[in-house]
Amino acid sequence: MAPAVDPAVRFESVSYAYGQRPAVSDVTLTIPRGGFAAVIGPNGGGKTTLLKLALGLLKPSRGTVEVLGTTPQAARSRIGYMPQRAQIDPLFPAPVGDVVLAGRIGPAAAAYTRSDREAATAAAERVGLGELRRTPFSALSGGQRQRALIARALVADPELLLLDEPTANLDVAMENDLYDLLASLSGTLTIVLVSHDLGFVSPIADTVVCVKETVTVHPTCELTGEAIRTTYGREVLAVRHDRDARGHGGER
């Protein structure tokens, strides 16, 4: 008998609509603690909606969402979130350390403590920006900015990290660099990453969630070849749509 899964995120028959337009329908999904899930699908398919439901920013019209053993609202302080479009002007003259420190802002406004500042320093070092804490955010490369925003999501020491298209608008080298960072974090917390890439995901993902209003979870298989290495700069995984996660043939 297979061991019981300890879920970090669990959706049970979840549906949500924007007005009369369904966003996700009848989603049942479990992401285990310590896992790395890549969420892929077309634009408008419901990927960001799933993250917002997990955060408690949206309430399902049907079904239940459980995060870290409780409701999304109760778990929110244990979740790190990097939105698809961070509300930071890239030209805003704030140093990296202050951008990261903003992740310690709680529901009640208060002055930052020494503990907050130490946590911000540790988070910046964790993503490889320790020596750039005093550098203006505007002076960073695209990949470094994404690292700073991930550090902001990590600064509260979350158990679950939700990333909405963190590699969007990055070139292949920067994307590879960011995946290396996520690989170093994998296993220390649960990671759910929404990707704009419909066909391939980093080998560090152990679950691939395909979203187009409904959700299917597929196994992956290794894909090698000079053409793929040239395009992606690393070995990648292809999503196998011929078999579902339980080994049954065909799409589900």
Describe the model.
- This protein is 26% helix and 28% strand.
- The strands form three sheets. The chain has a six-stranded mixed beta sheet, sandwiched between helices. Strands 2-1-4 form a three-stranded antiparallel beta sheet, covered by helices on one side. A three-stranded antiparallel beta sheet has the order 8-12-11, covered by helices on one side.
- The two termini are 24 Å apart.
- It is an alpha/beta fold and 252 residues long.
- The protein has a single domain, classed as P-loop containing nucleotide triphosphate hydrolases (Rossmann fold).
- The protein is built from seven helices and twelve strands.
- Strand 1 and strand 2 (21-32) form a beta hairpin.
- It is globular and about 45 Å long.
- The longest helix is centred in the last third of the chain and has 14 residues, at 172-185.
- Mean pLDDT is 82; it is low at 226-232 and 245-252.
Main beta-sheet strand count, sense and barrel state: 6 strands, mixed
- Return the CATH class: Alpha Beta
Quickly give the CATH architecture.
Answer: 3-Layer(aba) Sandwich
Helix content estimate: 25-40%
Question: What is the rounded Rg?
Answer: 18 Å
What is the ordering of alpha helices and beta strands? EEEHEHEHHHEHEEEEEHE
Principal-axes geometry comes out as globular
Parts with pLDDT < 50 across at least 5 consecutive residues? 226-232, 245-252
Q: Supply the helix-strand structural class.
A: alpha/beta
How do the strands line up in the largest sheet? 5-6-7-3-9-10
Average of the residue pLDDT scores: 82
Share in β-strands: 25-35%
